[in-house]
Amino acid sequence: MPSILALCAFVLMVLGGYGYVNQPIDEPPWPQVIPGFSFSPFQEGQNPLENKLPNKADIQSDLKLLQGKTNAIRTYTVDGVFADIPALADPYGLNVALGAWISPDLKANRREIDRLLEVANTPPYNVVRLIVGNEVLLRKDLPQAQLESYLDEVRAKTDIPVSTAEPWHVWLKHPELAQHVDFIAVHLLPFWEGIALDHAVDFTMETYHKLQATFPGKPIVISEVGWPSQGRTIKQAVASQANQAKFLRRFIHKAEQEGIVFYVMEAFDQPWKAGIEGSVGGHWGVFDAAREQKFEMRSPIIAIPQWKLLATASIVVALLMTVLLLTDAGGLKNSGRAFLMFNAFFASSLIIYVIYDFTLQYYTWASVLVAALLLLGVVGVFVIVLAEAHEWAEAMWYQRRSRLLAVPTQVPSSANQPFVSVHVPAYEEPPAMLIETLNALARLDYPNFEVIVVDNNTEDERTWKPVQNHCAVLGARFRFFHVKPLAGYKAGALNYALERTSPKAEVVAVIDADYKVRPNWLKDLAPQFENPDIAIVQAPQDYRDGQDSLFKALCYAEYKGFFHLGMVTRNERNAIIQHGTMTMVRRSALEAAGKWGVTTITEDTELGLRILEQGHEAVYIDQSYGQGYIPDTFTDYKKQRHRWAYGAMQILREHARPLTGLTPSSLSAGQRYHFYAGWLPWIADGFNLIFTVLAMLWSGLMLYDPVYYNAPPMLISVVPILFFIFKVTKLITLYVGQVKTGFRTALAATLAGLSLSYTIGRATLAGLFIGRKIPFIRTPKMAARIAVLRAMNAARDETLLAATLLALLVLIYLRLGFETRENLAWCLVLFSQSLPFIAAFVVSLISAMPQRVRPVAQEQTRP
């Protein structure tokens, strides 16, 4: 019942939110007829810059549509078919303010002026104004004296009133220009001034009155006035259909009261103008490019007329998401269910609105491709967010852990103690460290075990010989093999050990060469194999040098997230990741699965998946039974994570068919889900790296041509920002709430995790799209400390990327400013994208700090 109530609440929130934002707003009605429209008869797909022009039939169709809606139209050129507009307009009762296009091309100007005069002085005599040039001085196409010469010439050859069209501030800057015109043709477009909608009409009227006071006796004609329906914002001016409708209906009402002559900018959307004014340039029309009226002329204005459809679509998608998220959610508390519902409704609402917003744009084939990729990216982000939200809920708001095994409280009988063969692969390991590992094994409180050490390919006899000698000292149950050559890296060594395992061994256990196990490891965990369905018993990796330095404290905190969160939740659906130390596997299952795999560099995880595909069970004991060493340097830390991520992608490629169900296996839906969802964040790092590169390229294009290459729409910028906030919030919340760390340790884990984003991203892209086998890279233990410069070099690529992103951010601010919300949002995107790279630089510096305990390492964490 609480879940149903929560679901109903979220449905009502969506409906209420859409309804509140889209309340009808009364505005002055649009009159039956207005004085004029700016008229550019280009159809969608036509472009004067490419000489793709309308024909007479196109123009007649547009004029017919405007018949009875306006007294006049304003044109901009008399070149070609545009000279026929007055004759074509006459049958529809339309007068014409005829324009001549004036440019730096003096020969073209001569043709325009001659043709202008010819058309104006030829029947049907419906040309009521002549406008010589459009924003010539604003663009600095000609000296003022040359423009004045043209104006004087035209005035001398006709009785029709003559002017040139310029924005209001150009007229005020060049008042002497008024001596060469019969009226002031002014552009009043408060959107370009960045004026908020609620002040835009007042600004327009005040500016009009200022011109009247400056040029007494000169008629003022507003030759362009309007507001765009889509595009970027400028300061406080927001482009939207609702704002376009509000501005025009308010302005026309005021203009009618004062008897102002004006031409609404413009009759029809002109998508081609995006090439010269950016995306906003194509959306000034009262009618769209398909000649459909954009907004209500007399009824109350609704921001999104289709809001009921969008709300319904959002709810339907959210319900589908909720069903998927709450499948097999019996162990979740009501608060966890509500959290998942919230994420489903939020994600669906944003996705539906993004799709709706895309439908309002005009696209070329290239922009369609870009839009499709962006939309695909947005959907991909939310798939990852929902998967992470699911993990968050199951980690934070669970009622019970049905499969999490408790630590045994009684010592089992000898009948429940299967013979265990402990395998220790080694390569170039410090002999003192490995001897310490073997001594710990010798102290095991368990009667039935053997230890097989396989040193593969170590060159220096002084490294492996002491270990061989020590095994002889420890007794018959310890056997040492030095093998050279031996192919297959760690998997090869483990298979070599398997071939020499005692026939009576029922269980194979593996630890890394640096692990000191606790005496009760086998005693506590080996009896779990009494259950014939269990093939793997896994204990977490743990570390004993987490307080040696601040760097290792960061790493130690970061490791805990996987072993005390991810593994615990995966265990509930029998989907744990087997890792190659502190693992125990039933020998018969291991051999039936084909032994340790040599086709990937993460042979442990790959074997675990093969065993699960055969229908066996794997269990996880959330208690430390052994501790090893953390990588000593940031370089080694990165190499380790690169191997894990690259190997995971190799596994996804090799096991794609059973994981997707194309090949029959015993995997359940929950197991398949966890193997995909568990690696989605790593895949996200890969695609985020691609996004970062594209963001840098786009930022460069913005700086090169800020008009054509606008900042991406707000919604596109908001998504990666929200994703970054979600990711960091999740990490900190789970570390503090579930791993039981202090807040500083949670921040440390977050910093360490972010520092690996670039490494993981590169590894996943290579593993997914290249997929070739790369060498197994051993993680060195007890390595010598490194100098600061060498430590910084470990994050060279990340430092360069961070510097580039921050430099682009500063350049965009200096060149373009934050006058538009899109620019500000895009710079926030660049900043958020730089944070993982900055984290890598910071961690690389920390790795070179002296080995001493820092406060973060002293916080109490879960054992």
TrEMBL record:
It comes from the Bacteria. GO terms for molecular function: transferase activity. The keyword Membrane applies. It holds the Pfam family Glyco_hydro_17. The chain crosses the membrane at residues 307-326, 338-356, 362-387, 679-701, 707-726, 747-770, 799-818, 825-846. InterPro entries: GH, Glyco_hydro_17, Glycosyltr_2/OpgH_subfam, Nucleotide-diphossugar_trans. PANTHER family: BETA-(1-3)-GLUCOSYL TRANSFERASE, CELLULOSE SYNTHASE CATALYTIC SUBUNIT A [UDP-FORMING]. This is Glycosyl transferase. It comes from Limnobacter litoralis.
